[in-house]
Design brief:
about 110 residues, 5 helices, 2 domains, mainly alpha, two-stranded antiparallel ribbon, about 10% strand
């Protein structure tokens, strides 16, 4: 029994389509070259139902996904301090805030 026959047997009652059936019909529609209205009329599918399938499919495609990302920071970040006399002091710190704080206090104390 094909989809059209099943839809006719159901009469006015809305036909329930399984997910796999919907996907197959959407593929058939794409390959048919027909307009949505004409395709639905030929298959006995309600046009509003068919539009709902497209909406569901679009929502599935736009569902946000998460990907694992590895963020790496450089082990030694260069810091450059411009002194009031125009000199520049460049240092490499190994991520130790105490060393940076000590350096800043020392420079400010000059």
């Amino acid at each position: 029994m094909n989809t059209e026959e099943t839809a006719k047997q159901d009469g006015n009652r809305a036909r329930q389509y399984k997910s796999q059936q919907r996907e197959e019909l959407l593929k058939e529609y794409k390959a048919s070259g027909l307009g949505r209205k004409e395709f639905c009329e030929q298959r006995g599918i309600r046009l509003t139902t068919f539009y709902g399938w497209f909406k569901k499919r679009r929502k599935k495609r736009t569902t946000p996904a998460f990907a694992q990302v590895k963020v790496t920071a450089p082990k030694q970040a260069p810091i450059e301090i411009h002194l009031p006399n125009g000199q520049k002091l460049g240092i490499l710190l190994n991520g130790k805030q105490e060393e940076l704080a000590s350096l800043i206090r020392g420079v400010l104390g000059c």
